[in-house]
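Hello,

I think I submitted the adenosine-5'-tetraphosphate job twice by accident. Can you confirm which output corresponds to this input? Input:
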Amino acid sequence: MKIFSGIQPTNQLHIGNYLGAIAQWIDLQKDNECIFWIADLHALTVPYQAKELQKRTLEVVATYLATGIDPEKSIIFRQSDVKEHSELAWLLSTITPVGDLERMTQFKDKSQKHKANINAGLLNYPVLMAADILLYQSNRVPVGIDQKQHIELARTIAKKFNKKFGETFIVPEGLYSKLGAKIMSLKEPTKKMSKSDSPDSFISLFDSPEQIKKKIASATTDSLKSVKYNPEKQPGIANLLTIYSLFAEQLIKEIEKEFANKGYAEFKQGLALLLIKKLKPFRDKKEEIAKNPELLKDILENGAKKARLIAQLTMQKVKQAMGLV
Ligand code: AQP
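Support: Only one job matched these inputs. Its output is below.
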């Protein structure tokens, strides 16, 4: 099966990006044809520093390697290295109703967050995302649940294109992790954890032990004093239990029992120690990778060559179908 997924180089990746997306990739990489890419064109839709973008892109590649993505098994490439993404996005935009784009939750949220910069790219983001996925004839797209609406739109666009111009695209399906599909903010546990929010609201995959302890200790909880999974009444504790369960590979019920007569401080201390232990191999591997920056550039160059071949084949088909050649 063809697996395709990517991440924007908008900041250091957090445990939400890992549990919602990357952890699934590691499993899928064993038996599938995988493509994992860096969505730098998408990252241009929110305010950013041009000087920082290259560095952040290479950091995402380093994060992929540090968490276990193997460039020998999977293609890793940068979106802007394959011009067919932008080309197909334009073609697909001609069959996408503006109304469909205006009702996207991410467009509404990001327009609210960046009121002074509601650019057309922000509105067209899901069309570019549909182009990304469809170019590679992807079967499955493992992502967090926040991307479900965009995946559904990509499916609608693929079906519409196939109906109008003849069978051209594979209609992709989203793959969502059972428990980790939406990790919440540590500060506002009714909102998803986001790498562009305040650093206190997320645990980066490379936070130091001190940072982890401090952030978990100050995570928002409640006054019920009971370590119970109840997302409605205790969203903060439910989120911490979810994170604990996924990293410890232990059922939530068992963790509740373990901390049944203990306070939140003890539970948080246990979670911080668990995270420090589980994230240490990522930190160590990233330090090792940092010694060889050329390796990251080579991986992107090789990945782009392979990605271009696949993308060009699809573009030929698309242009023929649309009457452009
Ligand atoms: N909180 C989350 N829980 C589970 N999965 C998540 N993802 C993001 N946040 C969570 C998944 O991570 C992948 C990469 O996301 P992205 O960088 O393309 O953009 P995003 O979804 O907008 O992620 P962020 O962290 O919120 O970034 P910013 O702040 O830059 O917008 C996707 O598969 C996403 O579902």
